[in-house]
Structure formats: structure tokens, C-alpha cells
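Box S1 | Example of a co-folding query
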Amino acid sequence: MKKSIIGLSRNQIGELLLSLGVSEKNLKMRISQIFHSIYFKGSKKIDEITTISKKLREDLNQSYSLERNKIKKEVVSKDKTRKWLLSLQDDKEIETVFIPEKKRGSLCISSQVGCTLNCSFCHTGTMPLVRNLTAFEIMSQVLLAKDELDDWEGNSDIRKLTNIILMGMGEPLYNYEEVSKAIKIIIDSEGINISKRKVTLSTAGIVPMIERLGEELDVGLAISLHAVNDDIRNTLVPINRKYPIKELIAALKKYTEAKSSRKITFEYVMLKNVNDSISDARELCRIISGIPAKINLIPFNPWPLSIYECSDEKKIRAFSEVITRAGYSSPVRKPRGRDIMAACGQLVSQSKRTSRHDQGGINV
Ligand code: SAH
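Box S1 (continued) | Returned holo structure for S-adenosyl-L-homocysteine
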């Protein structure tokens, strides 16, 4: 199979063009033309890159293509959320979710097949096999969504896909190189052209990577906090044993202090009688004080064999009020696509669904 140009960085395309005899002088322009055609116009074949010469198109066609991964299945929720199951070249599968809202449309993309973090309330952690996605596979999710939504420039003045959230399967900061390559294409004005303020990366808190993320990419940062003390967080988000709350908060303080416009989104899943008391809410405000932040309360989305229940609505409201009174915005995330198992933490693509007990210690 020919190698796809999708997901290659500007530099990599440059190297490729040099090897085909493009001169140094024309290099930058040629790269821009190719980028524009693939990511702005949505070309699916090298022959459609009509801004470059026929000869260059023929040379590229010898060993390269604009092939994307394939959609194996689409499910549409009654709330119009769409979930796509993509099959990868090695027959592994990932899921991508499009969440349309009144004034925006967010695409929730995956960064790994499965996830190694094994958060006890998350379905993705039950997948038996895990590997990192390549930048090609990450960008394929974006391109396929734009294909399906008919969202290419020229087709419509109003973009349907306005926001990208790295909140699908996997831990993006465990796949930093490929994720960052993809993000650079997403925020490139000749690429997908979505501003970095509209790209949000969600992490369980891989502390040593947070500073680097701020320096190199500076996209929105969401932290899956979910608990206010190490005992509970150790069971909910086991990576906490490696990077405990104190270290995480210290890294986030540094992160927000480095740039005044920065704000952290804390994600907090509401689990009945586990982390949803009023004193938890007060403690939450205490530990994050000094960090410009918003707290996104996520009603727990159930999945087969999960051992948790979602907190009662009243409890969620009371929790939210404490936080609001402390001066933080605390929207309750409306579950989207629950009926098609597309909501937060419900993504799992293997046909074989395992229970927690079946898992081995799988590492990337
Ligand atoms: N690994 C990254 C990316 C996953 S994002 C991270 O941990 O942030 C998915 C978000 O949904 C995370 O905040 C995750 O904790 C949350 N989540 C996982 N399972 C959930 C569930 N069953 N109900 C609600 N939210 C869930």
C-alpha cells in the first residue's frame, strides 16, 4: 500500500519534495500548496492538488496517496451526536465522536487504541490491547469527520467543526510526539485552521509533560481531577500514585503563571457516595485556589459491568453551588450521545468487552 501524506509535518513533506527534486527555493510554497489542498480543500487524491505541476503530482503518485482510514460504522444519537468506528490498517479500531451544539461543533478524537491508565470508572480502560495512534490516524479522524459533515472550505461559509477536543480514547500525553504533530496541523492556518484556543487536550495529569505542552503547543488544557485527596484519587485515577495531587497542582500553578491568559478546565466526574459530598466540593475549591480555572462537573456515564452510579441531580446541584459561590464557574456537562455509548468514558471498540477482572497489566 502507498504511504499516505496525511499526518506528515511540513518538514517531512519538505524532505519528501526535496527527494523528488523540488528546489530549495520553491520548497516552502510547494509545501503550503499541498497543505492547503489536503487540509483546507479536502482533496482525497493527489491528482486533485492542481496547484502543483502535473509532473510533481505523477512523481508523488508513485509511492504516496491521500488515503485516510476507513469508517466501519456510524451511529447517530437521538440528540444528533454522531459516533464513528474507524478501522485501522492493522484491523484495530478506534472511535471518534462529533457533538453538534447550537453555535459550535466539537470533535472528540482518540489518541490511542485503548488506554493504559485503567481509571476505575472509565470504559476505555477495559480494552485489552493498547497502542499509540500515529499522526496519520489522528488526522484521519479529523478529515473523515469533515468528509462526513461536508465541512470543507468552499462547501459552506459556516464551519460545522469548530472545536477539537482530545478527550476520546487514550492518554494524549503518553503519545506526545504524534499528538503534537497532529495538533500542529490542526492549528496551522493553511491546515485545518482551528485556533489553538479551540483545541483542548484532556489529561489525567502526566505531570512532567505539562510544562512541555505549554511551551510547545499552548492549547487549552483540561485535567481529569475527579477526587480531592490521594486515597480516593489513587483508586479512581491510578496514575495518581505516580503523580499525586500536590505535584499535579504545583505543575498547574506554574503552567498558569507562565501566561496570564491561561485557565485550567478541571473535569470532575460525579460518582454517587464516592466523591460528591459538600466537604469534597469545599476541599476542591481549597486545593485549586490560586489557579484560574473552571470546573466541569461530569455526570457519570454508566457502562456494562461498571461498579459506580451517577450522583443524584440534587447532589450535583449542591456540589456545583459550593464551587460557584467560591467564584468558579462550574457547568454540569450535559451527557451527549449516551444512547449510543458515545458519552465521556464510554468509548470502547473491541468486540470483546472485558470486565475489570480480566485485565492484565498492559503497557504501551
Ligand atoms: N486520558 C485523558 C483523556 C480521556 S478524556 C484524560 O484522562 O483526561 C475523557 C474524560 O471523560 C476524562 O475526564 C475522563 O475521566 C472522563 N470519563 C471517563 N469515564 C467516564 C464515565 N464513565 N463517565 C463520565 N466521565 C468519564
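Residues 351-364 have pLDDT under 50 and may be disordered. The two ends are 26 Å apart (CA to CA).
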